[in-house]
Amino acid sequence: MTKAKENKILYGNNQISQLEDSILKCFFPEGEEKVISKIIERSGYSYERVYTALKDLEKKKVVSLKKIGKTLVYKPDFNNLYLKRAFHHYMAERLVDFANKHKIIYNAIRLASQEILGMVILFGSYSKKNETKNSDIDLMIVSDSEKDSINSINQIKSRYGLNISPVFVKKTEFPKIKEENPELWEDLKKYALVFNGEDFFYGRVY
Question: What residue ranges define each of the domains in the chain, with the CATH number in brackets?
Answer without folding.
Answer: 8-76 (1.10.10.10), 102-205 (3.30.460)
